[in-house]
Each structure stands twice: as structure tokens, then as C-alpha cells.
Amino acid sequence: MQGLILDYSGVLDMDPEDERRWRRLIGAVRGKDVSAGILSNEPADGPDADTIREWEFRGDVDAVVLAGAIGHEKPEREAFQAAADAIDVPLHECVLIDDDILNVRAAVECGMIGILHTAFERTAVEIQSLFDVEGEF
Q1: What is the spatial distance between Cα 55 and Cα 91, in angstroms, rounded to a whole number?
Q2: How far is CA 1 from CA 29, 70, 131, in A?
């Protein structure tokens, strides 16, 4: 797998400690020469848009794709494709992390690996296994 695509709301928008843990984990994955991006159904000018874009501005991810900016939302294939294109990785080489089972299912139907996020610790173990990342996060 060459790409990691994460939802924002329900995944990355947790308390400050979980955010730090996510940043360390995403950094470790990117250290394995994997591109990372955020795909959110947030409108381009929505209340969380600037907060989400900060992940890219800080260098935590390679790209942020907001549904409102591209005219497609998850679970549409076009939204997944836009995120994969933004990180320059073929769609079938991407892993999607999302807290909505319908989005995970749609990602799998598009050829991606989908992981349903329910708790950081569980998701971290799956990410570490897929991308051969060691460490405590």
C-alpha cells in the first residue's frame, strides 16, 4: 500500500492527546514512503474547513480534499479518486480510515482497503500492520 487516506470528523477531530497520537502515527507511516491525505465531506467554506486544512499546512499530511471543493462526497467513487489523485497514488493502492461503515464499504468496492475507525488503539494496530510500522503511539 502506498497511500493512507483519513476522514477528519469522527477520526482526527478528537481531544488534543489523540490528535498528537495521530500526528505521530501518520508521521511514522509517511516515514515508510507512504503518502497521506485527508478526505472530508466538509464544505470548502464550512466551520471546520480551516482546521482540517491546517493538517496539510503543518505538513502532517500531503493533501487535504474537501468535498465542497470537488463537488463529490464520500461514498462516491469520485471523492475517493480525488483524494488518491491529490496524494498521487493509484486508488487501489490506498487505505481509507473512516468512522462511517458506508464509506468504508464503498471504498472497498472501489478497490481500496477500508478500515472502520472505532478507537485509536484498534485503528493504530491495523495501520501498523498494513504499513509495517513499529512503535507506541
Answers
A1: 21
A2: 11, 25, 7
Q: What grid cell was written down for 22?
A: 495521530
Which cell numbers in the block locate residue 56?
496539510
Instruction: Supply φ then ψ for residue 121, to 5 degrees.
Output: -60, -45
Instruction: Name beta bridge partners: 35.
Output: 3
Tell me if the pTM is above 0.90: yes
- For 80, left (φ over 0), alpha (ψ -120 to 50), or beta? alpha
- Regions of the chain with pLDDT less than 50: none
| 68 touches 45 (CB < 8 A) | yes
- The DSSP symbol for 27 reads H
Helix (H, G, I), strand (E, B) or coil at 4: strand
DSSP state, residue 98: E
Q: With b meaning 16 or more CB within 10 Å and e meaning fewer, what string describes 84-99?
A: bebbebebebbbbbbe
